[in-house]
Amino acid sequence: MPHKRKVSLKHIAEKAGVSTALVSYVLNGKEKESRVGTEISQKIKRIAKELKYTPNYMAKSLRSGKTHTIGLIIADIANPFFANIAREVEDEAKKTGYTVIIGSSDENPDKFKDLINVFLDRQVDGLIVVSTENSFQQIKLLHQQKYPFVLLDRYFPELQTDYVSIDSFQASFSATEHLLNNGYKNIGFIGYKSKLFHMIERKRGVTEALEKAGIEPLKHWSQSITFDKVETELKPAMESMLFGQTPVEAILFGTYRLAINGLKIIQILGVKIPDQLAIVSYGQAESFELYKCPITYLEQPLGELGKKAVSMLVDKIKHPDKLPEQILMKTRLVIGESSHAISESLK
To answer: Would you give the distance in Å from CA 146 to the centre of its chain?
Structure first.
């Protein structure tokens, strides 16, 4: 079988009747700064496509000192939120000429540290990072070394870094207000036992919405679960909320994983939604809509989060001295039957 000749810039230049340098400018997205005419630019791109030209990234990286790769560290690949956001990052990065290498820390700080080192060894041009518990020192070190990175979903307010996340406080506050408006007063929150800022903010949003309504939240209305002990800790925590003195009438789950496990427990306990208990959760998944009583959830803007993280990182790679950009996006409350107004659910 004859060896297939690799198409070079020279081949494209010959066919287009222009110089190799001109082809290089166009295919590297520098036609505007090189003042290449639109007609010539389109012709070069069309010929490159016809000849099935693929860039030689190895040679390119040796010349530029760049590898055109981005490292993405997510917290838990089994969680649909992170799996979907990884896809968004990958698709967006591809449009800007970057390849994404993905690693999952599984919420483990040691694995997180190892992934950072692996990506730095691979000489990725920058990192998009979903932090995990006890990862502050690694992030601080990256920041001190002026390494290009963007924090996604979770950030540290005390560090002046680039980040894009949702406004967790506002999301929890609005979800709690929705429940209050529908007649629920004893509203509980289930989150992870964590010092991470986003989880603290999710709990704070519930507390402050209740206090604003003149309701003093009781201690057992808020439960914190260890990430790797959901199977053993969640059921007793929920029993304490549902069957203790002054039981909760509604629960906001701080993550999708906690909600899915919580719904199984609710079924085992024979508690009816929404007649006996209202539910709202973070995270979106088909299973929420397919559940026999569709679940009200806080929809997070996955596409916008992923796209913004990539554009911020690419900008940081090109302009290392640029001031940090810090963005908090809004969630959207998608209302299902699980949080119907009390009068409706009792009809």
So the answer is: 23
How far apart CA 205 and CA 220 sit, in angstroms, is 17
- Distance (Å, whole) CA 125 – CA 114: 17
Residue 265 in tokens: 């427990």
> What residues does 151 pair with on adjacent strands?
129, 163
Count Cβ atoms within 10 A of the Cβ of residue 103 and give its class: 0-12 exposed, 13-18 middle, 19 or more buried: middle
Q: Is the pTM of this model over 0.90?
A: no
Residues 123 and 194 in one domain: no
The reply to whether 296 and 311 lie within a common domain is: no
Structure tokens given for 192: 């992870």
Alpha-carbon distance 202 to 254, whole Å? Answer: 7
Q: Is residue 177 part of a domain?
A: yes
Beta strand 99-104 pairing with 149-152: unpaired
Task: Give Cα separations from 8 to 56, 139, 196 (angstroms).
Answer: 9, 41, 49
3 state SS of 15 = helix
CB 221 within 8 A of CB 189: yes
Mind listing the pLDDT tens digit for each residue in 301-343?
Answer: 999 999 999 999 999 999 988 999 999 999 999 999 999 988 6
